[in-house]
Amino acid sequence: AQSVTQPDIHITVSEGASLELRCNYSYGATPYLFWYVQSPGQGLQLLLKYFSGDTLVQGIKGFEAEFKRSQSSFNLRKPSVHWSDAAEYFCAVGSTFGNEKLTFGTGTRLTIIP
Amino acid sequence: NAGVTQTPKFQVLKTGQSMTLQCAQDMNHEYMSWYRQDPGMGLRLIHYSVGAGITDQGEVPNGYNVSRSTTEDFPLRLLSAAPSQTSVYFCATRRLDVYEQYFGPGTRLTVT
Q1: Residue of B nearest to A31 (CA)
Q2: The dihedral of CA A97, A102, A106, A108: what is its sign?
């Protein structure tokens, strides 16, 4: 069965600092991978996705993520965070073999300090 | 184009009461799904549908029923609410050939 681990429950960074959120997945083949962001009281918004091809994917709001098959990881990065990036971030994995289910990690809450 | 809408936004139920959470979409997406979000557990899939008349169970289906009579609507029914069903519920939709989900704003349900 597919699964996702986000080892960091809560991360605090200073505004302007760089950010990396970790995501490890378990899946028997090449998965579909996603990062979503959830602002307080809101639904989830897709930041970026990886299906195939270039392992470094660019998303919205200046985020990027790198797929590393050897490490089963799909870490999210941003070179300089803004106060508006404070939110909860979810990594998700989907099957490539017709299984319609998307499995989410438990999320990482990001706090930005001035 | 409203996207994915959910009603109500908030609901308080007593144990044993029934209710239906509504989800509607105007994007003509074949795939619709329901998730519940609980602290420290991420989002867990309750039920999903790949088209009108077709539904299937997700990870945590017990206590919930669904039906899909139209492409646009995918209601989630709680027949006898329990405190363990206190959660935030999200509806999500996508096209079958594009693996990118669109989420509704959520319904916060409290069962006392």
Answers
A1: B99
A2: positive
